[in-house]
Amino acid sequence: MCSALSYRLLGLCNNFAYVVMLSAAHDILSHQKVPAGNGTGPIPPKANSSRYDCNPISTGAVLLADILPTLLIKFSAPFCIHLFPYGLRVAICVVTAWSSFILVAFSTTTVQSMAGVVLASISSGLGEITFLALTSFFDSAVVSAWSSGTGGAGLIGALSYLGLTEAGLSPQHTLLVMTIVPVIMQASYCFLLSPPPQAPRCGWGSCTQKSLRAPSVTHQPLLGDNITHWNTPETQSPKLSLQEKGQVVKGLLKYLIPLAVVYFAEYFINQGLFELLYFQKAPFSHPQQYRWYQMLYQAGVFISRSSAACIRIRQIWLLAVLQCLNMVFLLVAVSYMFIPSIYVVFVLILYEGLLGGAGYVNTFHCVSEESQPEHREFAMGASCVADTLGISLSGVIAIPVHDYFCYLP
């Protein structure tokens, strides 16, 4: 019970900075400056400007800064991260997340802001692969708890940024308030997470491997009722060869490729189309519309990531097809601007989030169920690459798409 609660908090805190940076992308590209009234009223379209009221730089640039470091970490970490104790990894996540809020809050140029976004990406990427690998030492409840927590990070992060800016705080002060979140993450790891005897744990001082205290340790698989007995310390954390790791990844491709497609489509919508889905006659300014889009997307993600106990979907490819159809429809909507009301877009974005969250939680449950106990820790960590790869590709494509539409009269 305590571990499940800890994993919810860890998931929430781990993804919080990443989500906030995407929610603040429109403000970041404006150097954290908003219109008079803090963007709380409609803004008349600028003379001689594009009908899409574009920023000079696509929000896809913020997405790339927020995801490429994560991609690098996830590609390399499964092959070397075991050399670093869990406590050290968590400490790095906490420091980089806290620094990201400070740097973006006090930045005066887009370059400085992007550097802060990169720090948030490092924190989120390292944290995800660390905590998902650590789930291999716990029972099945922590996978759902982690997924629910990361979904909650999306909703609470986007909603808190929207709420605080709507209440009158500047983006800078809003980001400073959020520096408390990395502190909560460290406290959750140190005081709430109680590792089972076989899990390695490292605090601020020394590292210990508690499983070495006994010659025989009972290891409970992540999902399922069978109990595997590890008779020697070496078999508790098996050393997989490069060939074995390649075979594990090959067996997971039927889930990882559809997950990458799901995330490509949804983040192309989020960072390529959100800013262009601008309704001049809506009762919200352009910055407000962008924040509402992000909040509703994250609400959908939270609902579906928290649904694993009720609904299980093994056909991840079906979610990928539905998300691609959603992407194509919204791309056509941006091109021809035929959607009559922003509230129609609100519903579509909520649906987008539901598909994305379902893809994430069901993929990791399938990976956990099908992995052999000695492969599970590596498989859970390596599977993180799929969504990040899809997001990275969407950011690359979103930038030229943004530029194409913004040069239209």
Short structural description:
InterPro entries: Battenin_disease_Cln3, Battenin_disease_Cln3_subgr, MFS_trans_sf. This protein is mostly helical.
Write the layout of secondary structure elements.
Layout lengths: L1 H22 L1 H4 L30 H22 L5 H20 L4 H25 L6 H26 L4 H7 L2 H13 L7 E3 L4 E3 L7 E3 L8 E3 L2 H4 L5 H32 L12 H20 L10 H21 L5 H29 L5 H7 L1 H23 L3
Antiparallel strand pairs: 1-2, 3-4
Structural class: mainly alpha
User: What is the subunit arrangement here?
Assistant: single chain
Strand order of the largest sheet: 1-2
- What is the H/E order? HHHHHHHHEEEEHHHHHHH
Which geometry do the CA atoms define? globular
Share of residues in helices? 55-70%
Q: DSSP helix count? A: 15
Low-pLDDT regions: 32-48, 202-237
Tally of DSSP β-strands: 4
- The CA-CA distance between the termini, in Å, is 57 Å
Integer-rounded radius of gyration: 21 Å
Within the CATH hierarchy, at the fold level, what is the topology?
Growth Hormone, Chain: A
Per CATH, the class reads Mainly Alpha
Which second-level CATH architecture applies?
Up-down Bundle
Pfam family, one: CLN3
Subcellular location: Endomembrane system; Lysosome membrane
Main location: membrane
Transmembrane segments: 86-106, 118-138, 144-163, 175-194, 316-336, 342-361
